[in-house]
Amino acid sequence: MAGGLLDREIAFLDALRTAGLTVSLAEVLDATRAMGAIDLLDREALRAAYAACVLKRPAHRTTFDMLFDLWFPAVTGDPTQIEADLAGDGEPGEGEPLEPEAYRDALRDLLLDGDEEAMRRFARQVVQGLGRADTAPGRQSWFSYRVLRQLSPETLMASLLGAMLQGQDRGGLAEKVARQTIQERIKQFQEMVEAEVRRRLAEDRGTEQISKTAVQPLAEQVDFLRASRNDMAELRRQVFPLARRLATRLTARRRLGKTGKLDFRRTVRASLATGGVPLVTHHKPHKPHKPELVVLCDVSGSVAGFAHFTLMLAYALREQFTKVRAFAFIDTCDEVTDYFTPGGDVADALARMSSEAKLVWFDGHSDYGHSIEKFAEDYPEAVGPRTSLLILGDARNNYRATGAQTLKQLVQRSRHAYWLNPEPSAYWGSGDSATGAYEGLIEMVEVRNAVQLEDFVQRILPQ
Amino acid sequence: MLQPQFATVDDVQTRLGAAGYLADHAIATTVFLADRLGKPLLIEGPAGVGKTELAKSVSTATGSELIRLQCYEGLDEARALYEWNYKKQLLRIQASKDDDSWHDIHDDVFAEEFLMSRPLLTAIRNPNPTVLLIDETDKADVEVEGLLLEVLSDFQVTIPELGTIEATRRPLVFLTSNATRELSEALKRRCLYLHLDYPDAAREKAIVLSRVPEVAEQLADQLVRTVRALRALELKKSPSIAESIDWARTLVALGLDTLDEEAVKSTLGVVLKHASDHERAATQLKLN
Ligand SMILES: Nc1ncnc2c1ncn2[C@@H]1O[C@H](COP(=O)(O)OP(=O)(O)OP(=O)(O)O)[C@@H](O)[C@H]1O
Ligand SMILES: [Mg+2]
């Protein structure tokens, strides 16, 4: 391998590690051997080879691709120059920047056609033409929002739909499908523009620096409180795999645990094959203890995303419990168990829960005191000695009464009780956070992201 | 011993294509490397995206024998690697004469004749080109991973009574997983890794056309775009390539040549298997 490439490889693998991927020595050696086997000028083969050797979790794909594009760019320098040179027919205007309207027309045709390579070339061209701005006298930088604002691809939707549907019925299936296709392409184009901006920035300021600033936290590490709609959708997709993973780990743990009593009949039957000598003993399965789970969760504004994710997980795990009951509150409390029928659609359940359950009685601002009192009063049988009680919320109580005494009784009646708080623990107790009032009554755990939630569930689930 | 089967990445792509498997550049490169470096390839991805089919197609393309270890809960060493045939051994011992020394009998009953070879051992001993498919690895218990690690690190198996058996010719190994549970880091480190996902629209269309040649190109195009719209909904079980193919076959069988609301409504069951997914798709795609 040439010296330059080797340096690049080391820097790239370093950047992956900085971004949170684990890359072992064995994998580095694989990558090095792989480089000796492929055509190094084939950039996509290079990408695939690195991915095969060091990228072993699909959740890390976006980060991997972004860093690969930065460390192994497809082109260097001003791309319009390169392409003009390549075309080289010397016509006037070639490679010259166009007016925004002309760019929009070109983009519309590209989105209709969907040719990826053409879209990528175009992205380079528009970033060159529209993406540069002065940040200070004599200093320039590159901005994707400048490009995307001037092109505003979303506003091309109506015209693209018209062209794609060619007189078919609007409002029905055909439109839905066409819309989906166009949205996919627009998103692809936006990502191409962003990648190109990162490439130009890296050329100006150094790849190392840009790789550090551009990396987004991995989905499982995104704070619930700061998650965008995309992040939430991604997290919802992870609920079922996560639940399955947890469930199998638990089953494995139970199997490895104490084996049950000797299964006499099976042992004797098996010994027949070995002339009556019981070479292998068989045991009855150990019967695991399964608790009841009661979830009481704040579903007001900012913490709703966290509550939804955790509720979905609780339901996905319901085989691990004898019974699961869920209660939601904002400033008053209502049971929402029945919205989650087995096999039903969880996203629908959440929507119905928000619109149908009675969660507000006064002003719709969180009131933990009233909600806890109401819960204890209306559902006195819900919490008993077999119950694991989970409270979800940030304890931001608008300086209202906390209901701490009632909560204390609930906790005492339960088998276990935990409070999951999606706020960083550094902020607990500041402003209107009522965590101080509950301190010592119940174990409060910081659960800011899916990784922390997984750890927590693993810790408390029945052994 | 390494004896690569493929000359170049393009060679992989061409020969897989001839075997009926349309691989993109990334898939072809990864298979090429697994073959070149002699490393097992772990293929992960959702159901029905062609994980198993890839391994099978590689065996067809290279004229290798396909040996398959299907994983399931409770799979153990005796089923995966080898087992002594107790019954036969017992018979042999009972048939022995009184003056046979135990030593002779021992050597006798722990001989080749009493050994039942299971897929892992069979693949290692096979002198001919072999593709070893360890299918649905995530279904097996964690202990099996330890066994795989051992066997796949040096491609040898030690049988205490017979000694160490080494591969004369390294099999090309594919492990598949639906990722219902995370496989151990150690196993992942030993393998090259390929995440197979739903293909892009162009490749999926090509797959549908190659598997169901009776379908018109226009219809295949519509079908693939509709399937993609379905995948964008948050469904419990997103339709896979297998479902796209089934759907195309169904439409052909029913003589439908365009995928309008009526056609989708009456055949959606082929694509979506859960009642709740069905309802969700119907509302979101405005089928009512
Ligand atoms: N690239 C491809 N070229 C041709 N056919 C394909 C391709 N990918 C998938 N298929 C088709 O899709 C079907 C499903 O693939 P396969 O059974 O290999 O899926 P799988 O990923 O192993 O699923 P599972 O996780 O359920 O075992 C195959 O029968 C095959 O016909
Ligand atoms: Mg399979």
Count of DSSP strands of chain A: 8
Identify the CATH architecture of the largest domain in chain A.
Answer: 3-Layer(aba) Sandwich
Number of domains of chain A: 3
Name the shape of chain B in a single word.
elongated
Total DSSP helices of chain A: 19
Uncertain residue segments of chain B: none
Distinct small molecules bound, one entry per kind? adenosine-5'-triphosphate, magnesium ion
Mean pLDDT score of chain B, rounded? 91
**Beta-strand share of residues of chain A:** 5-15%
What is the CATH topology of the largest domain in chain B? Rossmann fold
Strands side by side in the biggest sheet of chain B? 2-5-8-1-9
Strands of chain B, total number: 9
Description of the molecule:
The complex is a heterodimer of chains A (463) and B (288). Chain A has three domains: 3-71; 84-216, no CATH class; 229-256 and 289-460, von Willebrand factor, type A domain (Rossmann fold, 3-Layer(aba) Sandwich), CATH 3.40.50. In chain A, the strands form two sheets. Chain A has a six-stranded mixed beta sheet with strand order 5-4-3-6-7-8. Chain A has a two-stranded antiparallel ribbon with strand order 1-2. Residues 88-94 of chain A have low confidence and may be disordered. Chain A has helices at residues 3-18, 25-37, 43-54, 61-71, 79-87, 100-113, 116-130, 144-151, 157-165, 173-205, 207-214, 229-256, 264-271, 304-316, 346-356, 368-378, 404-413, 435-438, 450-460, and strands at 132-136, 139-142, 292-298, 323-329, 333-335, 387-392, 416-421, 443-446. Chain A is 53% helix and 9% strand. With 463 residues, chain A is an alpha/beta fold. With 288 residues, chain B is of the alpha/beta class. Chain B folds into three domains: 9-81 and 118-195, Rossmann fold, CATH 3.40.50; 82-117, no CATH class; 201-284. In chain B, the strands form three sheets. A five-stranded parallel beta sheet of chain B has the order 2-5-8-1-9, sandwiched between helices. Chain B has a two-stranded antiparallel sheet with strand order 3-4. Chain B has a two-stranded antiparallel ribbon with strand order 6-7. In chain B, helix 1 (9-18) packs across helix 2. Magnesium ion binds at residues 51-52, 135, 176 of chain B.
